[in-house]
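Pinned message: reference record for Major facilitator superfamily (MFS) profile domain-containing protein
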Amino acid sequence: MMDKIGRKRCIAISGIVMAVSQAGLGVYSFCEATPGLEHFVVQYNWMPVALLTITQVGFNFCMATLVFVLVGEIIPVQIKNYVSGFLNAAIECTNSAALESFHYMVMDLGMHGTLWVYSGMCLFVVVFLNLTLTETSGKTLREIERKMTNLKPLPIPAENKFAKY
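Predicted structure (tokens):
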């Protein structure tokens, strides 16, 4: 899917779907915590499950696999093993930090505030990656590496004289 629509567009779709569904969960949680809005919660009691499912679909659409696709495309072969190990460790550290901070965020901001912060983080990731990420779909690994290292392309010989041997 990423190759057909491009990395940046895929990130935008995935991040916006996640942001909207997280914001919707925040609205639902706000209505749950606000006196006088309980009728909304009772009437739409199916909404949290639907919005969590949409969040997960949005995440799996692009964000879950993006790091691993980009490691395969952007990182030079000489350091790819080290960088992929480092990125896996960084992902696990940020996941742990998010899990550890969730309880404190809920205590300080409420569930609705926490979900709105997560929604804002999704939008920040969309903007940041769209500004900084190089579009790699439709390009060869050689072209991508040259672009990332700012090297001039080598001339490709018209005929390989040694192909016969």
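Pinned by admin. Summary line: Residues 80-132 form the longest helix (53 residues).
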